[in-house]
Write a structure and sequence with these properties.
Elements (H helix, E strand, L loop, with lengths): L2 H7 L22 H18 L2 E7 L1 E2 L11 E2 L6 H18 L5 E9 L7 H13 L2 E12 L6 H9 L2 E9 L3 H6 L6 H14 L3 E8 L6 H12 L5 E6 L22 H17 L2 E4 L3 E4 L3 H8 L3 E3 L2 E3 L6 E4 L4 E3 L3 E5 L3 H9 L5 E6 L2 H16 L1 E3 L7 H16 L3 E4 L2 E4 L7 H6 L3 H4 L14
Parallel strand pairs: 1-4, 1-13, 2-3, 4-5, 5-6, 6-7, 7-8
Antiparallel strand pairs: 8-10, 9-10, 11-12, 14-15, 15-16, 17-19, 18-19
Helix pairs in contact: 3-4, 3-11, 4-5, 5-7, 8-9
Bound molecules: S-adenosylmethionine (SAM) and iron/sulfur cluster.
S-adenosylmethionine (SAM) binds next to strand 4, strand 6 and strand 7.
Length: 455
């Protein structure tokens, strides 16, 4: 890949786990009664057909990794566990009292923060409470995120008892110099222990999270991290592009200085060499950021064209509805998004007062839904199709100009009714999706940067 392409396409841009992206939600146009109406309509359609998806955010971590962009609270005080689980269960009860029938849960994900911060007993109490008011569907897909340093066989067994068969472990990088810079001591022995325990207990899909673009990372060090990862043969490997977003996370990312980070060209090199090593190891690239063994369901759904993407990232199911519980969680009812209070004590106070702790949301317009579909197609299927009637003449002229640019750079082919991404375009999926984003093209800007760089 040429340096000029990298320079041209290395702009600030969304990762499109939603469209419109959160900074462009029309929060003034959001109303709770309208949202409830859309929630009920989608729920009734989805619950009997596929069952719903549920995301539960467990925000605590014991130690701060200075690169982290997740919504988390650092504490070693484990007395926070019980009241937090109480709040999540109270929030769930509010939903279940409101919903017209007992939910069926097809997809369930515990994310963080660090779910394994919580004791197996508290996780058991959480899931007992969730399933007191809901049923699992047949062959559900339940997953969770564990930290290799505090995940125990007790955590793995407890969640396996509730039907969890997929677990992902944060690894990031094995180089001690990188680990020191990101303040994450991550011994390979811990990763080995939890990976082996998960398999012995009956998990069928283990995933390891790696990140490229971290401070002090070099091609040799990332190749070494990947070689160590390949030795475990995890079914999936997330290979995330480091999102440098210090303006969002305060000084949390200030454990290193900008000069310690690879340049855009060096970062792209880390990705290219990393991808080669992963592919040589038998993994296929899935959309953006993810690799999977060929027998894994993520790869199979990509091949059949049914891969889906939502706030949880890539998933194998499109259930039509994702409910989010816990501080900062985001929900998607197909025609509307909502987000909970990020501040944990405000979240808890609102739930105790018997209120849904929603802080903002967005009601989709018909155009939003259409563009959302196009962007999903680009990110999940590397192609998209549309009708000539989808655009006014001037909209089409503007879009075609952008697509001409991508075509001239060899990134895609397009006609008046669709596009197909070429292999050279894969690293630029975010850029291609941005061409369709009406909110970005409408020239809305903000004083603060809103997104990380696309390269
Ligand atoms: C919630 S953590 C995983 C569970 C557990 N907290 C851990 O760290 O092991 C989610 C993952 O997001 C990724 N991540 C966090 N901050 C990131 C950033 N700034 N850029 C890219 N990926 C990031 C990391 O790979 C991390 O493992
Ligand atoms: S990477 Fe994981 S453990 Fe580290 S701060 Fe982020 S959420 Fe917590």
């Amino acid at each position: 890949m040429t340096n000029s392409l990298i320079a041209k396409y290395n702009v600030a841009g969304p990762r499109y786990t939603s469209y419109p992206t959160v900074p462009f939600w029309n929060t003034d146009g959001f109303s709770l009664p309208d949202w409830r109406q859309r929630l009920t309509k989608t729920f009734v359609e989805t619950n009997s057909a596929t069952g719903i998806s549920l995301y539960i955010h467990l925000p605590y971590c014991e130690s701060l990794c200075t690169f982290c962009a997740c919504h988390k609270r650092i504490t070693k005080n484990h007395s926070v566990e019980t009241p937090y689980i109480d709040s999540v269960l109270a929030e769930w009860a509010l939903y279940c009292n409101y919903l017209p029938e007992r939910p069926r849960i097809a997809e369930l994900h515990l994310g963080g923060g660090t779910p394994s911060f919580f004791s197996p007993q508290e996780l058991r109490r959480l899931l007992t409470g969730i399933f007191a008011l809901a049923d699992p569907t047949d062959a559900p897909d339940y997953s969770w995120e564990g930290h290799p340093n505090n995940t125990t066989a007790g955590h793995l067994r407890t969640l396996h008892d509730f039907g969890f068969r997929r677990v992902s472990f944060g690894v990031q990088d094995y180089d001690p110099v990188v680990q020191k810079a990101i303040h994450r001591h991550q011994p390979v022995a811990n990763v080995r222990r939890v990976t082996e325990q998960a398999r012995a207990i009956g998990y069928t899909s283990v995933s390891h999270d790696l990140v490229f673009g971290l401070p002090h990372q070099r091609v040799e060090s990332i190749q070494d991290t990947i070689a160590q990862t390949l030795a475990f043969r995890p079914e999936r490997i997330a290979f995330y592009s480091y999102a440098h977003v210090p303006w969002i996370k305060g000084n949390g990312q200030r454990g290193f200085v900008d000069a310690d980070l690879p340049t855009a060209t060096a970062k792209r090199e880390l990705y290219e060499r990393g991808r080669e090593a992963l592919e040589a190891g038998g993994y296929a690239e899935i959309g953006m950021d993810h690799f999977a063994l060929l027998h894994d369901s993520l790869h199979r759904t990509m091949q059949t064209g049914t891969l889906h993407r939502n706030f949880m990232g890539y998933t194998t199911r499109a259930t039509g509805m994702l409910l989010g519980l816990g501080a900062s969680s985001i929900g998607d009812v197909g025609t509307a998004f909502m987000q909970n209070e990020k501040d944990i004590s405000t979240y808890q106070k609102r739930v105790s007062a018997g209120e849904l702790p929603i802080v903002k949301g967005h009601l989709h317009t018909p155009t939003d839904s259409r563009i959302q579909e196009l962007i999903l197609d680009i990110l999940c299927r590397l192609r998209a199709s549309w009708s000539v009637y989808d655009w006014t003449d001037s909209e089409w002229t503007t879009l075609a100009e952008k697509l001409d640019g991508f075509r001239a750079d060899g990134l895609l082919d397009y006609t008046e009714t669709g596009l197909r991404v070429r292999p050279a375009g894969r690293p630029f999926l975010r850029n291609i999706a941005m061409a369709f984003d009406r909110y970005l093209t409408n020239g809305q800007t903000s004083e603060k940067p809103l997104f990380s760089q696309t390269v």
